[in-house]
Amino acid sequence: MAIVKVKFAPAWRLMLSENAFALAKADLAAGKYVDESGLFAVDGDSEDAAEDAFDLTNNPGRQFEREQEYGRGRSISSGDIVVVGEEQWLCMSVGWKLI
Predict the structure, then answer these.
(1) Nearest 5 degrees, angle CA 20-CA 58-CA 9?
(2) Are 71 and 81 a contacting pair, CB within 8 Å?
(3) What is the pTM of this model?
(4) Distance from chain centroid for Cα 63
(5) Could you state, in order of their start, the residue ranges of all structural domains in the chain?
(6) In this structure, what are the phi and psi dihedrals at residue 34, rounded to the nearest 5 degrees?
(7) Tens of pLDDT, residues 11-63
(8) How far is CA 50 from its chain centroid?
(9) Are 93 and 20 in contact (CB under 8 A)?
(10) Contacts 24+ apart (CB under 8 A), 34-37
């Protein structure tokens, strides 16, 4: 079990760019990411917790659990960052990358 927080990407360009990781790091350093989610609990730790947070916010079969844990905020998508403890995981178009 892990407590996580989501930082939402500042722009669509992160999803479409070949330099998504470099752009995300630069935007994070410049304070352009938006801390919109509250803290919420998910299964796993590290990258597994980021993956469970993604599933929680995107899986229609978990809608009731989502509303209980996360609320009605937007789903996690490419370019967003899931903070798990001291780690920050960037949601890539496929998988995750530790920042």
Answers:
(1) 30
(2) no
(3) 0.90
(4) 17
(5) 2-98
(6) -105, 120
(7) 655 566 678 888 889 999 999 998 778 899 999 999 999 999 999 999 999 99
(8) 7
(9) yes
(10) 34/7, 34/8, 34/10, 35/5, 35/7, 36/6, 36/7, 36/8, 36/73, 36/74, 37/5, 37/6, 37/8, 37/70, 37/71, 37/73
